[in-house]
Amino acid sequence: MSKGLIVQKFGGSSVANVERIQNVAKRVTGYRKKGFDVVVVVSALGDTTDELIELASQITTEPSEREMDMLLSTGEQISVALLAMAIHKLGFEAISFTGSQVGIVTDKSHTKARIVKIATDRIKKELKVGRVVIVAGFQGVTPDDDITTLGRGGSDLTAVALAKELKADECEIYTDVDGIYSTDPRIEPKAKKLAQITYDEMLEMASLGAQVMQARSIEVAKKFDVPIHVRSSFSDKDGTMIIKEVKNMEDVLVTGITLNKNEAKITICEVPDKPGVAAKIFKELASSGISVDMIVQNVSHTRKTDISFTVNKNDAARTIKAIKKVNSDIGAGDILVDEDIARISIVGVGMKSHHGVAAKMFETLAHEKINIEMISTSDISISCIIKKNLGGTAVKILHEKFNLSK
Amino acid sequence: MSKGLIVQKFGGSSVANVERIQNVAKRVTGYRKKGFDVVVVVSALGDTTDELIELASQITTEPSEREMDMLLSTGEQISVALLAMAIHKLGFEAISFTGSQVGIVTDKSHTKARIVKIATDRIKKELKVGRVVIVAGFQGVTPDDDITTLGRGGSDLTAVALAKELKADECEIYTDVDGIYSTDPRIEPKAKKLAQITYDEMLEMASLGAQVMQARSIEVAKKFDVPIHVRSSFSDKDGTMIIKEVKNMEDVLVTGITLNKNEAKITICEVPDKPGVAAKIFKELASSGISVDMIVQNVSHTRKTDISFTVNKNDAARTIKAIKKVNSDIGAGDILVDEDIARISIVGVGMKSHHGVAAKMFETLAHEKINIEMISTSDISISCIIKKNLGGTAVKILHEKFNLSK
Q1: Which tens digit of pLDDT belongs to each residue from B4-43?
Q2: Using a CB-CB distance cutoff of 8 angstroms, which residues of chain A are in contact with residue B59?
Q3: At residue B5, what are phi and psi to the nearest 5 degrees?
Q4: Which of B46, B93, B31, B87 is nearest to A59 (CA)?
Q5: Which residue from A minimizes the CA distance to B103?
Q6: Which pLDDT value is given to residue B15?
């Protein structure tokens, strides 16, 4: 009798070489020995994906997205076959599948496809006869039988979607860190591993710069209430559970702090303060495929106002170009670009029901003479733009003030 | 209006790197420009297959054949995607497919599957809208949707089977030599490239050691009368046509000469000359998976006889082991192994209707004082076992005597 079903996802660093694949096989079969049914989702070996992208780039700078998916999906296919062999070697039954074989059907948006349905018959059949089922992450297939990929980090999505569809008891995401921390331990060594975090907090953390899990997969986990366990493939210690509600959450104001140094602040000066101007600007940016993050527009006293917003540093040049395209129409003044910024954010579901969290953050920064250039808030986060070189200090003092090392 | 349909197959050396893939793209689009419909079959890039085998061997010495197929089929998938990109780059439409996507259905014999049917709808649809269709060679899929491979050289089979199924006007096999030669040019520099050769002759040449094309694919081409053009991917010169009948074939006695130095001669001495003894021996060898080539048993005068046969050198040790297993039952004498042999063969459909070809061969060898240790003949070939160090000389003198450099 099965003790339950576990979906385990191993990222590229967890299967970077033969020895690590063998370690994964040991871990997986350990769960089989304990009586669990196991479905394993694997990413491509180490740098395989980057090597394939490099190969394509030698041929063309604008590869067809369909052909890129054809190319990149081989990476995971190699991983699943090798892992199946390693599990066989340990004397256990296992069978590998591509996304297509296992029936992960997606829409036709090559390189960033969305899963539309998963046929679980084949997986259930194989689990029933006692096999470990190994599924290639990151990939699916259109109804027309074309191979698709789910975008960077897509293996997380494969795992979460399979866990949901198979009604798994747990979805384990194995990675090279041992959980989610209150902040980046490279910046603040006192950072504490969180035992639990809510989906919403994790989503804020993911979109605010923590790179542990793909944001879309957390959205799906939240939507279908799939419990996720983020943990290290190099140790047996518990990691962090991502769940719906954290016990005693009323007591916790702030769960984590993130720092993002990859944004640039764009300011359009002296924008005429009349209806439709902002719309024109941001519509043009959207149609150029540029995602805008924080947007701040102050109250105007002179019929002219400044609009500031942040974009990814890499998009800064394209942003300027896009604005210049509409500027003759709008009649704004100078466009300023500031890459010397960092965004510091505090995240926590507790702040919803507590006053004074924002004030405490601003006060703490002010006390250290850190000037706040922009502010934006959501239900469960507050972000400030500050000078880049002050980012590390800001993390440390906020980490202390909000008692995150306890 | 299409000028006709050509199936082109490019081997691993023809797509060993980005530059060569680009050359293949140029050749393919050249045919498109001339108005042909083109289906391209590609092998894995250069040494990819060997690298994947090496990776698997680091995990297990006895990999599951299903998982080997899963692993190895990625090699061709990489090739087809890259070639599609290279063709796009030249401004032409192209689309790549795995064996599974294109409907190459095989039996379940993993690593050496046989094609049972090919669904051509998708290919025809894509050809109709003007696309070059690129198919991953060497692979297929079982009715249960498991990936299979067709064995070494299987891409030739993919090409020939597609050419047959699509009723192609020609099937071109691109390789790193510029055609089939009357003998190995490294042994006899006067060797002549043949303009034409029959399927039967090519089959003899292939099984007798010429390694240009996979034997099974020639059998299929013969069965369905698919004309094959073997030519170089590095030049535009015509290669060799493999066809049903060669013009003026009555005039040509011998088409080619092959030399095989990879066999060992096994002699079982003093075998009791009674019914069923030979059967016991060769049944045991068959069940050990050893293929036996030439077999010679002399007339017996003493109720004991010697049986000699040849096997691949690599199978010699296993052969001895197998014979020893049945020998107590049979009561034969010593078992001798001679690896110092070469098999020299002359091949040609013309010899069927001409007397004296064998005599001329034996005379020629005798004149050079080359002793013949074993002889075996077929409708269109005569093979002799001689001392290994005399192989080269034998090739040269026979090549001259049968006028093959003209």
Answers
A1: 999 999 999 999 999 999 999 999 999 999 999 999 999 9
A2: 18, 21-22, 82, 85-86, 89
A3: -115, 130
A4: B87
A5: A145
A6: 94
| Rounded CA separation A128/A299 (Å) | 64
Q: How far is A56 from chain B (nearest CA, A)?
A: 6
Phi/psi for A187 (5° steps) reads -95, -45
* Contact between B88 and A21 using a beta-carbon 8 Å cutoff: no
The Cα A123–Cα A106 span in angstroms is: 18
**A230: amino acid identity, one letter:** V
CATH superfamily for A5-176 is Acetylglutamate kinase-like (3.40.1160.10)
Are the C-beta atoms of B375 and B383 separated by less than 8 Å?
yes
Which residues in chain B touch residue A101, judged by CB atoms under 8 angstroms apart? 145-147
Helix intervals (H) in B271-390 = 277-287, 316-330, 357-367
User: Tokens standing for A143?
Assistant: 């109804």
Give the burial string for A246-258 (b: 16+ CB within 10 Å, else e). Answer: beebeebbbbbbb
Residue with tokens 């010169």: B237
CA distances from A362 to A119, A232, A322, A344 (A): 51, 35, 34, 11
pLDDT for residue A113: 94
Q: Are B356 and B381 in contact (CB under 8 A)?
A: no
DSSP-derived secondary structure for B153-183:
THHHHHHHHHHHHTT-SEEEEEESSSS-BSS
DSSP A232-268: ETT--S--EEEES--TTGGG-S--EEEEE--EEEEEE
Would you state the pLDDT for residue A332?
82
What DSSP assignment string belongs to B188-216?
-TT--B-SEEEHHHHHHHHHTT--SS-HH
Phi and psi angles of residue B20, each rounded to the nearest 5 degrees, phi first? -70, -35
Residue B69 confidence (pLDDT): 97
Side-chain half-sphere of B378: how many Cα atoms within 13 Å?
18
B338-367, pLDDT tens digit by residue?
999 999 999 988 787 777 888 889 999 999
Q: What percent of chain B has pLDDT over 70?
A: 96
Nearest chain B Cα to A64, which residue? B85
> In whole angstroms, what is the distance from residue B32 CA to residue B37 CA?
6
Complex ipTM over 0.90? no
Please, which pLDDT band fits residue B280 given cuts at 50, 70 and 90? confident
Distance of CA B87 to the CA centre of its chain: 29
Judge whether B243 is closer than 8 Å to chain A, CB to CB: no
pLDDT, residue B277, reads: 83
Report the alpha-carbon distance of residue A394 to residue A342 in Å, rounded: 10
Cβ contact, residue pair B81, A21, below 8 Å:
no
* Residue A249 pLDDT > 60: no
3 state SS of A399? helix
**Is B282 strand, coil or helix?**
helix
According to the model, what pLDDT value does residue B299 have? 67
Give B49: exposed, middle or buried? Use CB within 10 Å, 0-12, 13-18, 19+: buried
Both tokens assigned to B110: 């993993």
- Cα B135 to Cα B133: distance, rounded to the nearest angstrom: 6
pTM given for the model: 0.84
Helices A48-59 and A65-89 pack at an angle, to 10 degrees, of 150
Q: Do A77 and B80 touch (CB under 8 A)?
A: no
State both tokens at B378.
Answer: 């077929």
Question: CA-CA distance, A243 to A218, in Å (whole number)?
Answer: 10
Is residue A114 within 8 Å of A50, Cβ to Cβ?
A: no
Give the one of A56, A73, A88 whose C-beta lies nearest to B85's C-beta: A56
CB contact under 8 A, A146 and B101: yes
